Amino acid sequence: MSTLEAKSLGLSYGGAYIFEDLNLAVPEGKITVFIGSNGCGKSTLLRSMARLLKPQRGTVVLSGSDIAGMSTKEVARKLAILPQGPAAPEGLTVLQLVKQGRYPYQSWLKQWSREDEAAVFAALEATGMNELKERTVDSLSGGQRQRAWIAMTLAQETPVILLDEPTTYLDLTHQIEVLDLLYELNVREKRTIVMVLHDINLACRYADHIVAIRQGKIQAAGRPEEVVDSALMEAVFQLKCEIIPDPLYGTPLCIPHDKTRLRAAKAAQKPAGETRREPVSGEELVGVRRADNGGLVMA
Questions:
Q1: pLDDT of residue 110
Q2: What is the extent of the structural domain holding 274?
């Protein structure tokens, strides 16, 4: 079942199509991650599905309706999007930012309500930002700032949340912090989350559904364990690698080949006095072996 779908979507820049006749159904209540090389169209697709870009062909369907025919506030009550690198006005506090998430519910006749107050408080609590609500957004660390923006999207109380590279510019600790938060929201509230990520290993760890994009086309889509393999990585990223099970989670883990370091590692494994030996496989180097079924397991 899907709350958000792209049907025969076509989008062009300067007469050249980025997408043409693209079809995608986002699984409801799951975490979907778009992966692909730079410039392949991941962010363009995400923005098209949020109605930030108008397609030349096809439709985006949100909760059974063509998104093009919906009012801005109607869309904002069903779908929230956090773009890449959002910027807040100088001096804006976390509380003021999160309150912006209630805009879709405001009107001349309906001003701030108890429901709005409760939604803002719940969003601050869910993201661990309640104690920082009086801080200005520009005074926060990278991870705190991203959590503040996520709190704003949560305050919208939408069933669908789109995020364009939410871990960009964050160190590894803050990346995990943000992705853990999104994972917990998905598990606890069953919100449909769609995001663009560059880190393949984190994408596989957190996604229920992977969409691999290559040159404006969907190369593969499905559970990470079903679709992410060395052939896909070479097709999408032109990267030779080994795919092994993550030792903690069992999800696909990409170990890229590096020709220079690979040769050095092979040379280092030669016994003293031996000038030649059989080449070392990538599997040996990363400490895995082939199972009887052909898959890779930890040695």
A1: 74
A2: 259-298
What is the CB-side half-sphere exposure of residue 244 using CA atoms within 13 A? 20
Q: Is the pLDDT of residue 91 over 80?
A: yes
231-269 in b/e burial notation, b at 16+ Cβ within 10 A? ebbeebbeeebbbbbeeeeebbbbbeeeeeebeeebeee
Question: How many other CB atoms sit within 10 Å of the CB of residue 294?
Answer: 6
User: What domain count does the chain have?
Assistant: 2
Do residue 137 and residue 222 come from a single domain? yes
**SS3 state of residue 91:** coil
Note the pLDDT of residue 276: 45
Question: Do the domain assignments include residue 245?
Answer: no
Is the pLDDT at 285 greater than 80, yes or no? no
Residue 254 falls inside a structural domain: no
Query: What's the CA gap between 12 and 282, in Å, rounded?
Result: 41
pLDDT tens string 233-280: 999 999 999 999 999 999 999 999 986 776 676 677 766 555 444 444
At residue 222, the 3 state secondary structure works out as: strand
pLDDT of 120 reads: 96
What is the pairing mode between strands 57-62 and 2-13? Answer: antiparallel
> Does residue 114 belong to any structural domain of this protein?
yes
| Residue among 102, 197, 110 nearest 158 (CA) | 102
Q: What is the pTM of this model?
A: 0.82
State the amino acid at position 220 in one-letter form: A
Amino acid at 179: L
Same domain, 54 and 157: yes
> What is the spatial distance between Cα 199 and Cα 290, in angstroms, rounded to a whole number?
25
